[in-house]
Design a protein that fits this description.
With about 525 residues, the protein is of the alpha/beta class. The protein is built from 16 helices and 19 strands. It is globular.
Length: about 525
């Protein structure tokens, strides 16, 4: 089995004139941070990526224990060309380092009554599933697909990779937003086209993949439906960590450096022409690193609140940060079994008995409910390398409120795990607990304390209309010159395509190294 190992300070040998190049410090080695670092290195910057953890990846960290490989974060790859483009920029092809396998079906959605819906990419199979579950909604599904295609073209292709640093950028996008009926919620648009409650759940759950409530986020996110239909859902053989490993290799091939166990305690600034300007960072160890630009792939709220002096934050004040509406958090239980459950597919979404009310508990009431919906991930359905021979690797994920719920996760974690175990035993994994040979859990406390996410929110600000595009934290800081942002909590938002697009959007607001060196 391949292992993921990175020396804390190793990097490709730098040319003798490297010190003359402008220095970019990138805080965090998630997909957004690594994508930004590679693009900056290619544009002539000397790049240092600083990672708090002992391995790269951020939310895409990999836990390896007892012969099992547990991907901590994203398990679904869509829009693979965003990754392929980074390899191309470095004169390579992604296939040299990573093998992507298409999923069929994309997901199985299991309803509380035990029935299910297999979500496919092929139109014929999708139409057959709709005809089986709710034949009267087939025409409505086709109309919804046309609407999703419109949102994909206007909201994803044309606006996603472009930064929104000025209000004029938002005003320029307004006509397209009107065409997409962006003021409506995704569930509202789905309900307009389909009558079946089951299909309404099937076609509206996607915003949960990026931290959004289907009853609150803009209908523009129906573009995910079109994105998946056009380009598929993929799995990286060996797990998401193989993509991270490949991206680190690209960074080093361009002379970039990755430092692990290097937590940033402060973004250093000076005042020039009446405005603060980022000049580097100070690490938790006390070490300082000078930089010409600083790019934060960390949570934007955490970055502003804890890494930037409040005296320099006229826009992102503590009060403004506190007023934001933040995404849900996650409870994740990883477990390895000494047997296989081959009837369980790679991706299964287990919908609970309540849909709207459960989401209201999570997002609006910040209440940890007795019931839950679950995402069950079994990568060994596709990739035997994720477990020892004859074994299965799983994780089960439950969306839960962020830390405003007041839940004492230090004591509640085991109780909640047992509730989930009882449901899995009752439904799709009978008798599985006696086969557990390795396990671990992640709670909202880990998102706060380990991943440094404000309120333990797993995806930053919730992707509401009033917290998207120009209204979302900008890719170029509103408060600090030469401070920039990539990742889930800036524009365009969460999800692997979103954070990789943020690295693309960064290029539209960061000057090239040669231009910066002249100033």
């Amino acid at each position: 089995m391949k292992t993921l190992h990175h020396d804390a300070t190793a990097g490709a040998p730098a040319p003798a004139h490297a010190e003359a190049r402008p220095h970019a410090v990138v805080i965090g080695s998630g997909f957004g941070g690594l994508g930004a670092a590679i693009r900056l290195a290619r544009r002539g910057y000397r790049v240092t990526v600083l990672e708090k953890l002992d391995a790269p990846g951020g939310r895409a960290y990999v836990h390896r224990q007892d012969g099992f490989t547990f991907d901590a974060g994203p398990t679904i790859i869509t829009a693979p060309w965003f990754l392929e483009d980074l390899w191309r920029l470095c004169g390579r092809t992604m296939a040299e380092d990573v093998t992507l396998v298409p999923m069929a079906p994309f997901y199985r959605l299991r309803f509380a009554d035990g029935s299910h819906f297999d979500y496919h990419g092929e139109p014929e199979k999708m139409h057959a599933e709709i005809a089986r579950v709710a034949p009267g909604d087939l025409a409505g599904y086709k109309r919804f697909s046309e609407y999703a295609d419109l949102c994909y073209r206007l909201g994803f292709e044309e606006r996603g990779p472009v930064a929104f640093p000025k209000l004029s950028n938002m005003l320029a996008a307004a006509p397209k937003l009107l065409r997409m009926q962006g003021w409506r919620t995704i569930h509202g648009v789905v309900a307009q086209h389909m009558k079946s409650d089951k299909l309404r759940q099937v076609m509206s759950f996607h915003p949960l993949l990026i931290g959004g409530d289907p009853f609150a986020v803009t209908s523009v996110y129906s573009l995910i439906n079109a994105l998946e239909r056009r380009f598929g859902v993929h799995w990286a053989l060996g797990g998401t960590g193989e993509l991270v490993k490949g991206l680190v290799g690209l960074l080093r091939s361009k002379g970039g450096t990755l430092r692990l166990n290097a937590e940033v305690a402060r973004i250093d600034t000076v005042i020039t022409v009446g405005r603060p300007r980022a000049t580097g960072v100070t690490l938790a160890s006390g070490e300082t690193l000078a930089a010409d630009i600083v790019v934060s792939n960390a949570d934007s709220a955490w970055t502003y609140k804890y890494l930037v002096d409040p005296a320099h934050r006229r826009h992102w004040t503590d009060a403004r940060i506190a007023r934001g509406k933040y995404s849900m958090s996650l409870f994740v239980w990883y477990f390895g079994l000494n047997r296989r459950y081959d009837e369980v597919p790679h991706h299964m979404i287990m919908l609970g008995p309540r849909y709207r009310e459960l989401l209201r508990d999570i997002f609006r009431r910040h209440h940890l409910a007795e019931d839950f919906s679950l995402y069950l991930h079994r990568p060994t359905a596709t990739d035997a390398s994720m477990a020892p021979p004859g074994c299965d690797t799983f994780y089960v994920l439950s969306p839960v409120p962020h830390l405003d719920s007041g839940t004492d996760w230090a004591t509640m974690a085991e109780t909640y795990r047992r509730r989930i175990a009882a449901e899995l035993d009752r439904t799709v994994l009978p008798g599985f607990e006696r086969h557990i040979v390795s396990q671990r859990v992640t709670t909202p406390l880990d998102f706060r304390d380990r991943l440094l996410s404000y309120k333990g929110a797993a995806f930053g600000l919730e992707p509401l209309m009033t917290q998207s595009a120009w209204f979302r934290p900008h890719n170029i800081s509103e408060d600090i010159d030469r401070l920039f942002f990539v990742g889930a909590s800036t524009h365009p938002g969460a999800g692997v395509p979103g954070v990789l697009m943020s690295a693309q959007a960064l290029q539209t607001v960061v000057p090239g190294a040669a231009a910066l060196a002249r100033h």
